[in-house]
Design brief:
With 298 residues, the protein is of the alpha+beta class. Helix content is 25%, strand content 26%. It has five helices and nine strands; from the N terminus they run H-H-H-E-E-E-E-E-H-H-E-E-E-E. It is elongated, with a radius of gyration of 36 Å.
Amino acid sequence: MAVRPQAPVPTRIEPTVTEPADVEVRSLRALRLRARLPRALAVGAVSLFALAGAKALLTNPGAASTQVRPTLASDPSVDAFAEAFTRAYLTWAPGRSEQREARLKPFLARDLDPDAGLSPPARTTREVDWAAVADRHRTGSTTAVTVVAELDGKRAYLSVPVHEGRRGFLVVRSYPALVGGPATDTSAGQPTEAEVENAQLRAVAERVVGNFLAGGRENLAADLAPDAVVSVPAERLEVSSIDSVTWAAPGRRVAVQLRAKDGDGAGWTLRYELEVVRRERWYVRAIEDDPNGGADES
């Protein structure tokens, strides 16, 4: 049976009776002045702060300046431009100076020397075996890209100043610089890490790296967390021994150092860091490099 909606019951609102208010008579001009008083005080305070700041700038001009630090530039087109310039710059052969200058011309500003400031010896030949970007930093519209190049078994580090115009066009408008390689410390030892005491976690870590190197995808999947994304290497290796299982980051990352052999009998000493998580038991979320980029999510 349908239910008929009931009509709303009218509610009677009783009027509220208050005592008569006292009426204070003021002039209209006084009310306007009183309303403007807070605004006048605020403007005055801002003016005082502005004067104080101006005084500080006059007495100590460097006090309000901000030091501009070079920022990293990660534009792949800038890196590729610097690497291509390095290959053209460091490659020459006897009697082929015109060809070298022709290769350099698309990179150089018009008022630079056509040989980019490098006059190769007349009787030598040089080829760049490989080149790669080692470092970069940007100051204003110029990115100094350090390119490392392998030349007949020797390495050279070249800092290439790549200028980017307002329309995004790239050019080398000043000469490059030969620089040193990254600072190294060969006296440093291996990291000091605590051994993993949990037997179950050690077993999981050892099992995972063994199946990972052997390409055992099904066995590997049994120890992976549901959100794990792992890409196994193409080279198949067999683990010979486990040297250590330590905490790279306590409670989060386990480091496994091992020895393995490939199909040709070459011996490898490798170290893998595993992102681990504890649920009903220990699982691995990532192995060394998570291709999905989510290894550090919690």
